[in-house]
Amino acid sequence: ENGVLWMPKSHNRICSTHFVGNKKSNDPQSPSYVPSIFPKAYKITKCNHKQQLERYNRAANKKKMDLSKKVPDAVSSGDFIFPENTSQMSSVNVSIQVCFDVDDNQDFTFHCSFEGNNVSTQAAIPLTSNSNLNFTKCELSDKACGVDSSNSLSCLSCEAFHGFESIKTENALKDLTGTTFPIFNILLKLMPPSKRFSITKENELLLFLMKLKLGITYSALSVMFGIHRTTVTRIFSDVLTTLSTKTKDFIFWPSKKTISDLLPEAFKKNYPHCRCIIDCTEIRVEQPYTVEQRVYLYSRYKGGYTIKFLVAITPNGM
């Protein structure tokens, strides 16, 4: 009357006339679970209570049929006792396995109890003096299968990538690094012993050459070699510093007389004064941080940021 929400107390009672079907139901899905029929003075939206009750009855009958279909046909002995109010049962998948020995003429009772979402079972077996029940206890054992992660690098029988140990042919090495085994061994001798226990010296050089040849990210290399991304970055920088120092004398500018003496016959006839043949190439890089660097490194031809190289080769191929 005064606009305050009315709250029922322990001594309050609600007339059954306010419930659909003149009876309260304990099923939360039933339209008669809460009172919904009140005088017109309360201005409550009208609803078709008969239609709601019919819809609920159809749903309850459908659940009964579903539950009857789920009773296993394989169990032929024993009595199954279900609750009377099957409309409150939910659709559940239950699997039970019992292992014991009983006489053929000995009956037992198997009871299922449903309370909301909880399901419990109980078997009542009459025990006599002549009964000989043998309950078998299952023995459990843990077994592992597959590759042992602690020794994954030594597993060469599987087809996964295990670094340098997985490379068996020279074509495979060329596809990954662009070098041959003799050149790879020459570069390997120039490198100091590996300071890291997680990766060998061969894999450090392989990682470095794969980065130059394939241009894949440090994160991808970390997944392939099973190390952290920052470790890959440090390995690449260390190998780059070492090889750049020890191989700087491998590339030198020969004298003009040396080039003239070694000119091929075609060059001596058509280009006798050729000193070298030049060409440009570029390699994609990540986006620089500053705008000035982006202006210098952006390539319209490649549609991204690249580093440009000027390559020179003598007429005799050196």
Automatic annotation (TrEMBL):
The keyword Transcription does not apply. Residues 200-247 form the Transposase Helix-turn-helix domain. Residues 278-317 form the DDE Tnp4 domain. Its cofactor is a divalent metal cation. GO terms for molecular function: metal ion binding. Keywords: Metal-binding. This is THAP-type domain-containing protein. It comes from Acyrthosiphon pisum.
